[in-house]
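Thread: Modeling a multi-component assembly for a lab meeting

Hi all, long-time lurker, first post. My supervisor asked me to bring a structural picture of a complex we are working on to next week's group meeting, and I have zero experience with this. I have the sequence lines for every component (814 residues in total). Could someone generate the structure of the whole assembly? Inputs are pasted exactly as I received them:
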Amino acid sequence: MKSVCFYFQVHQPYRVKQYRVFDIGNDPEYFNDRSETDLNNRRIVEKVARKSYIPATKLILELLKRHPGFKVSYSFSGIALEQLERYVPEALDLFKQVVDTGRAEVLGETYYHSLAFFYSQQEFERQVAKHRELVQRLFGVWPRVFRNTELSYRNDLAHWAERTGYHGIIAEGWDPILGWRSPNYVYRPQGTSNIGLLLKNYRLSDDVAFRFSSKSWTEWPLTSEKFGQWLNEAQGDTVNLFMDYETFGEHQWEDTGIFHFLENLPNEVFKNPHLDFKTPSEVVHAYESKGEIDMPHIVTWADSDRDLTAWVGNPMQEAAIKAIYGLEDRVLEVNDHKLLEDWRKLQTSDHFYYMCTKWFSDGDVHAYFSPYESPYDAYIAYMNALSDLRLRLDKRKA
Amino acid sequence: MIKYARRLYMRRRVLMFGWEFPPHNSGGLGVACFGLTRALAQLGLDVIFVMPKKLDVGAPWARFVFADMPHVKFRSINSTVTPYNTASTKTSLMSVRNVNGGQIYGSDLMSDVLRYALAGREIALEEDFDVIYAHDWLSFGAGIMAKEATGKPMIAHVHATEIDRTGGRSSVNPDVFELEKEGMEAADVVVAVSEYTRQMIIKEYGIPGSKIRVVHNGIDEETMPKAGAWLPRLRQLKNAGYKIVLFLGRVTLQKGPDYFIRVAKRVTEKNPKVMFILSGSGDMEGSIMQLAAQLGVSDKVLFTGFVTGPERYEMYSAADLFAMPSVSEPFGITPLEAMKTGTPVLVSKQSGISEVVKHALKVDFWDVDEMANKILALVEHPGLSQTLSDNAITEANQLTWMAAGRKVDSIIQEVA
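Re: Modeling a multi-component assembly
Sure thing. I ran the full set together rather than chain by chain. Output:
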């Protein structure tokens, strides 16, 4: 038997509005843009829900009804669920229906979609716990497989996950790490004995997530028949297709045929009696580990470098992330709920990503989506908001 | 048949009408002509560069400037002129068309331009060339007359328009405007220094967009000014803990010096350790000093007057930020010069340069609060300044005159 394992990432940050130096000390709201720009969080969440989350989830529900063997999994950031609950309860309700079928697994992650693991382990654990509570409250399930923000992974993350009781963890199937080995097997993270490592098959995942509508791609147009054939031909126990959920309807628009593709894919998979769908937990239990994978350095799913340089690669990003984690002790000391929340919302990885200058010169705007006019504008708004947060801290202590 | 053979096997010859050439120039036009001419020569074109000035090409500076341009021949006519003055005489090209070997009297700029136009006809009849190339309205007259006399194709290169120079239509000099329009209409192809300028030419001059091509300026090491004498004074300021924001350009409406003073006020209210240096001269100098006094920032704004080439380089290097708040800027080479020295820049969105560079802070010239927001962020956060600086050098080094020359070369191949 060989399995197809889907995991979809659902995440929306709280983007910082155009917060000017003159707002410092006068405006404690950083995320409440109400303009017609992409800094308006409510507007973005409503748009993405309309174009992607709602139609895609309706389709997934339908597929679960149609095919008793169909399975999927999701990882929701806490702040995405929070915003959906407030702005688009219909979308959240559809997700609940999907999870209620018992054939959709919910993965564990940080509530604020942060990089806290690499900057403050205590804060990281608090955010994971907060996320777990939210998933419990909304879906009534307990995450057993962990995935970290941007699929960032290092050996010590797996050690932590094993200690904490997860039986699976997810990482990028990056060739320089794998060497001759295939991502299509379950592995054991270095230094562990009770946890399985699932690796993203980035080629097949990206065929859908990035290349699906690319007319310059030699395989365009990608049909479900062709993709089903590639799944048939893949060697191994499991093909892990991990991607942003916005792939369906937002990154690939409806008129590209992406929904049609998704709708037909189960038919193609079930044509082969040796192919099935499994959730990450099922994959970890169904297949033997094929050996140990050692990742002493951080690996992510980002761009061609697969490291953290898209988030902390230039002096602005380094200064910003250092500044936000530098406030941890003071923030926890003052015991102010709103202040704590704002501090945590400012930890979301997207803020640092918007400051990335790595590919900016190449004019490759599609590779690096940002609601700001430039990485410099993103940094200025962020640092101004942070200065205000610092001022609020000073006031609380006085 | 002969013409066809020449097309295939011979070097294209360009009759180029300019107005100035370094070091005898007072603005960016000369630098641009120099960079472009040299690039074209390196690409295998012959250039006959005509200037309306008495020019001793045997002088030491000329030997230095032209040393690596064996395929460039310089010609000049006898004239004493200075650009960027306001022309006043109500004469037009029409009135000189019938002057044959006669004299044009008058010592103002428009008379000089018309004299140059007449000389252009003479030179065109003497020289052997394939295409006429004229830079800005000052030499458009010469280009038009050369085209009328020989029937050769003409390219008009627009570095700035009267609309930019006057900051709007109301104070536009109608004679200058007419000559610009006539030159662009007569041209087979118009070259604009930016998409910003191209749009202005379409909208204000009614030239069809299909015949306007955008060729962005470049910047080369050799066109950069070198060391001067300002450094000790600037160093003193920096040692006293001041951050320096620099304006460098003509003090005229077009360059937005008044916005620079207003932003100085807004910034120093928040951070008194920022010093604003205004370098340059122009018709608004007096009123700008008055404005600084009125706003109470006389002690926060340093007026240096006009600075020469070498001193400019020191200004750029010493500044923490170079600001170009232009109201309307067809291109804007000074931010590129600053970027070459690794100094972060802030440019108005109403400029050609803002469409070319990514690693710059960009604002609307009228948005003084946003300009202050960005300046304050830059002086307070070293991470911002460092990232801009690192990327500015790399980006500026990619914008060469050779790239501009290649585009112009292909336009020449197209018309000639």
